[in-house]
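Hi L., both proteins are below.
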Amino acid sequence: MEINKTNDVQFGARLVQRVKINGKDGYNFIKFNTNSKNDVKALNEVKKLWGGKNLSAGIAEEAEILGKDAQIYGLTLQRDKFIKVDSPKVLGLVSTDKITAGKETEIFKIGTNPKYAYEQKRSKRTIKHIASAMLECIKNLNGGAKLFVSSVEPQEMKFINKVGIKTK
C-alpha cells in the first residue's frame, strides 16, 4: 500500500464560541477557513442569498482575494458539522485584521442577513443584536482590547458609537 502525502487538505470552518442573544441559546460564532474551497463557496452562497447586500459581496470577495490570509467570522444557527457551512443559517459576517490577545483589532466589514438587519427590517426582526453579538465575540478573542474601524459610512456612526468601536 502506498500513501501519498499531500499538503492540500482543507478543513472547513471551526466553532469559536457558543453565543446567547437576548438570553436565548442556539447561536454559534465560527471562523471561516478561507483556504478551504468549501468555505469560500459558502461565503459566495451567502452573498447570493443576501442579494449582495450588507457587505456580503465585499466579504466574499475579500475571501477570494486574500485566501488563507482573510480573517472572516460568522454567526450562525448551524449547531455542528462546521466543516460544511450551511449558508442559509448564516445570520451575520464580519471581517477583521488578525486577532491577537491584548491588541486592538481592526474591523473591516460587518454585515447582517437582510432578514434581520436593522436598516431593512427595523422592528419586524425576529432576531436582533446579531452584529453586537459578533463584536462581543471578537472582544473575547482579543482579550477585551479595543476594536476600531479606519473608515465608516455616516449612517453607521450611531451603531459604531453605541457598541464602543473607535474610529481612526
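That was the first. Here is the second:
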Amino acid sequence: MNEPWDEPKEEDGLTLGPEETLQREIEKSKTLKVDRLRLRDEIEKLKAEKSELAQKNQQLKERLTKLGNAETSPERTNPSSSNTLVLVLVLGFLTLLWFVTRN
C-alpha cells in the first residue's frame, strides 16, 4: 500500500509539490471551462447565422421563381399605346407626303 510518490515534472524540469500540482490542475480546468463556454457561444452564433442564411436563400429562390415565371409569360401590350403608335406613323407619312407634293 505504501507506493512511492512520483511527483509530476514541470516543463522546465522542476518538481512540483502537491499544492502546486492541484493549483495547476484547477487553472487548467478553469481554462477548459472558459473555452467550452466560448465555443458554445460561437456555436449558437453560427447556428443563428446559418438559419438566417437559409431563410435568405429561400427568399431568393422564390424571387427567382417569380422572375422566371414573369419572363416566360407573353408580354401584353396596351391597345391604346399601339393605336397611338399607328396614328403617329400615319400622320408622319401624310405630313411627309404633303411636303413632297408641295415642292
